[in-house]
Amino acid sequence: MSEQLLKQHRDAIDHIDATILKLLNERAEHARQIGEIKGGGVVYRPEREAQVLTRIKSLNPGPLPGESVARLFREIMSECLALEKPLSIAYLGPEGTFSQLAATKHFGHAARGVACSSIDEAFRLVESRTLDYVVAPVENSTEGAVGRTLDLMITTPLKICGEVVLRIHHHLLRSVATTEGIRRVYSHAQSLSQCHEWLNKNLPVDVERISVASNAEAARLASLDPAAAAIAGQAAAERFGLTKLAENIEDEPNNTTRFLVLGHQDVSPSGSDKTSIVVSAPNRPGAVHSLLAPVADNGVSMTKFESRPSRVGLGDYVFFIDMEGHRTDANIAAALQGLAEKTAYLKILGSYPVAVL
Ligand SMILES: C=C(O[C@@H]1C=C(C(=O)O)C=C[C@H]1O)C(=O)O
Question: Which ranges carry the ACT domain (predicted)?
Answer without folding.
Answer: 276-353
